[in-house]
Amino acid sequence: MRAFVNRDGIAFSDAQSMQPVQEWDLAENLEGVLKFQTRYKFQRCWQSHFAFPDNFGADTTQIRYIGLKVEATQLKKDVVATIVYEVTPNPSEHKTRADAGGGLSHVE
């Protein structure tokens, strides 16, 4: 299995020629209980692709589940706690320039 991180538009042909962040030699296991360690730290990862160049000689490849176990690290930046998006603003909740003595009466 080959892993690629933060790459847009990877095709099957690209996965053969591109350098992955990590490769694993998978073992055939019908119970699906194998665990593999990573040496690559998936930091700042917003997108990941996995390519399976071999499938133990079968005509088709079936992947039923891929689980990633991760450990969260502390955030280094302050997180915005409350974000409000207004689809339709309520003018009574907003001050206008006229309210502040500016002379205009529209909502900004």
Automatic annotation (TrEMBL):
Top-level lineage group: Eukaryota
Ranges of residues in domain PITH: 1-88
PROSITE patterns on file: PITH
One GO cellular component term noted in the UniProt record for this chain: cytoplasm
PANTHER family tied to this protein: AD039 HT014 THIOREDOXIN FAMILY TRP26 (PTHR12175), PITH DOMAIN-CONTAINING PROTEIN 1 (PTHR12175:SF1)
Protein family: Belongs to the PITHD1 family.
Protein name, as recorded: PITH domain-containing protein
Protein source organism: Aquilegia coerulea (Rocky mountain columbine)
